[in-house]
Amino acid sequence: MTASTEELQETEAASKAPAKVTHLTPEERAALGKAARAKVPRTLHAALEISSERDPVAYLQEQDASRVPELVPIKYGRMLVSAFTFYRGAANIMAHDLDASPRSGLNVQLCGDAHLSNFGGFASPDRALIFDLNDFDETHPGPFEWDVKRLAASFEIAGRDRGFTDAERRDAVLAVGRAYRESMREFALMSNLGVWYARLTAEEIAARLRAAKAKRQEKALTKGTAKAQTKDSMKAFNKLTTVVDGELRIVSDPPLIVPIEELAEGATREAITKEITGLFRTYRRSLQGDRRVLVESFRSVDFARKVVGVGSVGTRAWILLMLGRDDEDPLFLQVKEAQASVLEPMLGKSKFRNHGQRVVEGQRLMQAASDIFLGWIRNPAGIDGVARDFYVRQLWDWKTSVDLDTVVPQGLLLYAYMCGWTIARAHARSGDRIAIASYLGKGDVFERAMADFATAYADLNQRDYDAVVKSVRDGRITAEEGV
Length: 483
Fold this sequence. Notes:
By secondary structure, the protein is an alpha+beta fold. The protein has 20 helices and 13 strands. It has helices at residues 3-15, 26-39, 56-64, 72-79, 83-88, 91-98, 144-161, 166-189, 192-197, 202-211, 215-228, 233-240, 260-263, 269-284, 289-295, 344-347, 355-366, 409-430, 433-440, 445-474; strands at 107-110, 119-123, 129-133, 140-143, 200-201, 241-244, 247-250, 257-259, 299-306, 317-323, 330-337, 375-379, 388-394.
């Protein structure tokens, strides 16, 4: 399929009359939540039911076939650093496990991989540092509690990794559920625009820390904010580029960074540049008009494959160096492969033909503010001749995240509130916030169920981690450490 044919199909699909929207009263929406609670009591969410034929190694290997073969051992090496890093890369395993759980029937746009390391700070278009979700590779519509369960379990597992006590871990996990429930009830009372404009900035977080008299955390936030504001395209430019024969080039650091000409053997730089330029035109068409004008003011300079993340290792991720008015005006874009969400086998196929668009549309729906360069592309014939979908965003734009190596119990507790509020806000934008709030109720039943589930799932995650470690020893899996 050529790019032009795909664009024609998407235009035709967009021109179809939208489905009729039914507008219920707040009372009717609250009744839906109560009816869902009667059908699926909140206590049922504590249960973890797994199949006796469950094979976590096989679930992981399902994804390996579509990944770059020489990078797959790096993925396993990064996953096996700890039980928590394993959990970060095991979204496909948990998706299978959640499929057997009771469903509330109250659907939202799910992140699909809402563990605590997929939250953090980044720059909004108005140059404020905001806290939000920042990874949407697995985004897909589904029951709201799936995101909350993955988030709650991540706090239990991270707390174990840090050696926190049972009580300290449970407090943090309870805080996730409580923040989600209380925030959703607040959003249920807000206007539609009030929910849409709600966001959590660094200034607001600092104010909350001062109110809680958390001086150590406030100091760490101030330091982290200052550091984040230096992590931009200029810093990437200084770190990732060099001069070769008088021309700027992305450094070669295989296997983590490999310039395109080292991968496309036999192809000239001119031919590669021509192909990339052609593909880049299709990306520009996914942007709104003003942003298209901005990105067209930059010229492409170099392109390289870059290994990123933990669970994403092995998917095709590229960085594109662009220059504006001169060599001191760089822009680094990340072009990341988008495969089918791990939730699709359980929740149905995406309505989007292009998985890059699926990621972008989900991100725009869930985030308070999104990267101005966020867009998508399809490469109809990549280096290996296979058509692949990608989404595009800035490589670094004030990005920061919690330091799990140094976080203390009180810091993890405060972070839990932030993440719980954030995921509730994201769900309130796409789902029926009044029905969900009614389902959750005023008491602590929901958060206690989340805490019980998190404990059980952390135990299961540890067994899965041990099973994969054994598979490495047995030769079933190859893992490359320290890369």
